[in-house]
Amino acid sequence: MTRRGFIEKGTLATVGLSTLSKSLIAENESQHTVRAGIIGTGNRGTSHLGNLLTIAGIEIIAICDLDNSKCEHAADLCVKAGRTRPKIWSKDENTWKEMLDKEKLDCVIIATYWDSHAPIALHAMRNGIYPGIEVPAALTVDYTWQLIETSEKTGIPCMMLENWSFRQDNLALLNMKRLGLFGDIVHCHCAHSHDCIDHWFFDQKTGDQKWPAPYLLKYNRDQYPTHSVGPVISWMDINRGDIFTEIYSTASASKGINAYFKRKFGNDHPNANLKYKQGDIVTSVLKTKMGKTLVINYDLQLPRPYSNRWLLQGTLGVYDEEKGSVYMEEKSPEYHQWELWKPNEVKYNHNWWNTDLSDQSHGGTDLVMLNQFINAVRVKGPTPIDVYDSAVMTAIVELSGISIKKNAPVPFPDFTKGKWETNKPYFAL
Ligand SMILES: NC(=O)c1ccc[n+]([C@@H]2O[C@H](COP(=O)([O-])OP(=O)(O)OC[C@H]3O[C@@H](n4cnc5c(N)ncnc54)[C@H](O)[C@@H]3O)[C@@H](O)[C@H]2O)c1
Fold it and tell me: With 0-12 CB in 10 A as exposed, 13-18 as middle and 19+ as buried, what is 139?
């Protein structure tokens, strides 16, 4: 299924019990109930709610959105699913503070606009609440450091909800990498190639700006790196045996948005002749301490089918997601010939994917991720994606912009403060 298809499914709250949720009920029944809140019940927050309602042992205690009708809709979904109606918090843009101060929550899902993610997460941690933050976790490196420092000080884990790290194909590849089938990893490539101009940044019917559109006018950077880089950081052992040391980003001209408006709405549409700072394709090259390289493409504003173009290359082989192929020097049947990826995905399947979840949002990836997050909250343990990995993915937003502006590489912070040298691989083990 394409990401667009995933997204369309994701926006429909999947209320009801799936096969997986039945098994989760059995798994979670004897454990204590997790008290959850949701801030931001737009498309993504409602999709998360739908998934959370299929997991047993969770109570949705409180819901907050600027738009009261979205809160009401979310609360109705809880009732329809046979749960208690959550309390609604919807006065102004700071009502989330009151909710986090007053409600006794174990965790909160943050699915608001980008600029409020970090402030809400910081406040949650200070109240002893696990934040599950939508992507990106923060818009500045300064906020990224604050998330780390607050998580360290409060002892509350902080997870960015990067769902593509939990995809079945990406986890199978991680298993294969850990078995040494690709030898030493040398290079990776990834992209977020997804035409979002025609539905996410602008209204499909009127062309009016939606909340993320002003970022395209104001900045030129990789605005959305986390879906592409999420799985890659585990393949490259970032923060666990290696770290990024520098990032060098460059951007193409910005032509796609103007061309889209002229094509679809005509030359006179107010958005057709605005000057967008955001280049159509941003290419970032990152180097690591141990000599690996990574290329990331931002590609959200040209017409094209969805793709992540994941590629992993090591001393013993190569995986090419877009080709649907893999080659392993010591295992593939024919010398220097591709073999199909799919049988390998089945063979090296990760145990988080032991049920068919294809009827769930994003093909089940969101449910796998949320289940792992909730399991961590339930036992007050570490989250599957920690604050340092969240930081690495997030920092690319601002750092890529600085590099484009300077037309020079910029240093990549060591968010682990040296611990990367002794940290052991952790994600999905
Ligand atoms: N991981 C994924 O696959 C994926 C997919 C889509 C969106 N996202 C992320 O999810 C987030 C939300 O995106 P969306 O598409 O759902 O947008 P949306 O506009 O549909 O929903 C955002 C909601 O947040 C509410 N909100 C904003 N500021 C608030 C505040 N201060 N207090 C309370 N409510 C507030 C808005 O009223 C709105 O209902 C974004 O960060 C986006 O990057 C992730």
Answer: buried
Closest ligand 1 atom to residue 41 Cα is: 39
Q: Indicate the domain borders of the chain.
A: 3-162, 165-352+385-421
Q: Is the CB of 43 under 6 A from ligand 1?
A: yes
For ligand 1, atom 4, name the residue with the nearest CA: 44
Q: Answer for the pair 34, 60: CB distance below 8 angstroms, yes or no.
A: no
pLDDT at position 4: 38
CATH topology of domain 165-352+385-421: Dihydrodipicolinate Reductase; domain 2 (3.30.360)
Q: How far is the CA of 119 from the centre of ligand 1 (A)?
A: 15
Give the pLDDT band (50/70/90) at residue 30: low
Taking only the tens place, the pLDDT of each residue in 102-117 is 999 999 999 999 999 9
The answer for residues whose C-beta is within 8 angstroms of residue 378's C-beta and 6 or more apart is 28, 31, 32, 34, 57, 106
Tens of pLDDT, residues 160-202 = 999 999 999 999 999 999 999 999 999 999 999 999 999 999 9
